[in-house]
């Protein structure tokens, strides 16, 4: 299958991992990197983001149509393509090309980020919406969606894998470790743990953590900077406890990080949720907490117990690798759902191309 793949593509973006999964599945990707679009001047970019309009938005849509005419893809896959105009989706439909919207963020959630103006208009026009939340399925249908599939965030098997020889605590130089952003109350929670005398290690973008931590806290707790790929995997291996928080401002059921930690063979201590407990057996494949008091109790329980942590981490690793928590499985489910729309496409569906774009 030829996939016109529209996403923010860099070695550190999860959209790039899904592209790799498509190619491993034998599909041909025609990539469109959304990082190549947008006003260069900072103020103009902010205005563009809020209005979702302007010359770069128009260029983006023209380029997609031109690429469709040139390559005749079987599917258009859009990963949070907020510049996409409704008329462009109409044009793809006229060419007989099914369209997929893959959206990790929560359009219907409480955060209310800017930039959704065009996306709201395109919801009824995509052939398939992919969402990671049960609540979003009826919300998309109520907004006029044609079809919706519930998927989950996943790990990338070429990056998130266990150490050839399992680490021991003698090799682990991170105690209670969190790698990620400072959403919600994470900074407050982690500093409270540190004040209890626990060995907290925080990594992630400094631009996120410096405003949330005092100078003393940042100096004491922040380590190694922003970690990706090999460095990220190594930090998981070197952590006695790997914390995974839900992003409540996005109404998440689960997060990438939980599946990545488990796939790497790390001990996972995650926020309890129906999404997490449905995917890992509690206290056997992962450990969960709700609220600060339970988090503190679980950290104190497991930090000194290397044998229990190693046992649970190994079981969680097996679960991740055998239960479809990888990108390849999730991408395959999406393409299977849209496959009926790609059958029977012939010259007749393309004959209208000249009428649409002339």
UniProtKB/TrEMBL annotation:
<dbReference type="InterPro" id="IPR055259">
    <property type="entry name" value="YkvP/CgeB_Glyco_trans-like"/>
</dbReference>
<protein>
    <submittedName>
        <fullName>Glycosyltransferase</fullName>
        <ecNumber>2.4.-.-</ecNumber>
    </submittedName>
</protein>
<dbReference type="Pfam" id="PF13524">
    <property type="entry name" value="Glyco_trans_1_2"/>
</dbReference>
<keyword id="KW-0328">Glycosyltransferase</keyword>
<feature type="domain" description="Spore protein YkvP/CgeB glycosyl transferase-like">
    <location>
        <begin position="189"/>
        <end position="335"/>
    </location>
</feature>
<keyword id="KW-0808">Transferase</keyword>
<dbReference type="GO" id="GO:0016757">
    <property type="term" value="F:glycosyltransferase activity"/>
</dbReference>
């Amino acid at each position: 299958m030829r996939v016109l793949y529209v996403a923010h593509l860099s070695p550190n973006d999860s959209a790039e991992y899904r592209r790799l999964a498509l190619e491993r599945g034998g599909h041909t990707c025609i990539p469109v990197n959304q990082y190549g679009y947008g006003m260069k001047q900072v103020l103009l970019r902010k205005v563009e983001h809020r209005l979702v309009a302007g010359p770069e938005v128009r260029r983006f849509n023209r380029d997609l149509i031109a690429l469709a005419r040139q390559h005749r893809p079987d599917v258009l896959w859009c990963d949070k393509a907020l510049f996409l105009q409704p008329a462009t989706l109409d044009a793809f439909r006229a060419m007989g090309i099914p369209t997929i919207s893959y959206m990790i963020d929560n359009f219907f959630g409480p955060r209310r980020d800017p930039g959704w103006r065009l996306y709201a208009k395109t919801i009824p026009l995509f052939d398939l919406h992919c969402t990671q939340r049960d609540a979003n399925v009826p919300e998309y249908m109520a907004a006029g969606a044609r079809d919706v599939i519930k998927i989950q965030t996943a790990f990338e098997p070429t990056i998130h894998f266990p150490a050839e020889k399992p680490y021991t605590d003698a090799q682990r130089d991170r105690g209670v470790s969190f790698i990620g952003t400072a959403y919600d109350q994470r900074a407050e929670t982690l500093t409270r743990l540190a004040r209890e005398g626990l060995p907290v290690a925080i990594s992630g973008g400094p631009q996120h953590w410096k405003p949330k931590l005092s100078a003393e806290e940042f100096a004491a707790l922040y380590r190694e900077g922003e970690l990706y790929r090999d460095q990220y995997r190594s930090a998981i291996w070197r952590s006695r406890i790997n914390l995974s928080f839900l992003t409540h401002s996005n109404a998440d059921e689960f997060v990438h990080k939980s599946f990545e930690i488990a796939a790497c063979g790390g001990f996972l201590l995650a926020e309890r949720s129906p999404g997490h407990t449905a995917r890992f057996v509690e206290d056997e494949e992962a450990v969960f907490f709700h609220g600060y008091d339970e988090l503190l109790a679980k950290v104190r329980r497991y930090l000194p117990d290397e044998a229990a942590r190693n046992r649970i981490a190994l079981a969680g690793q097996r679960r991740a690798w055998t239960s479809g928590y990888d990108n390849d499985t999730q991408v395959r489910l999406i393409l299977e759902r849209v496959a009926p729309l790609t059958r029977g496409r012939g010259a007749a569906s393309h004959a209208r191309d000249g009428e649409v774009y002339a």
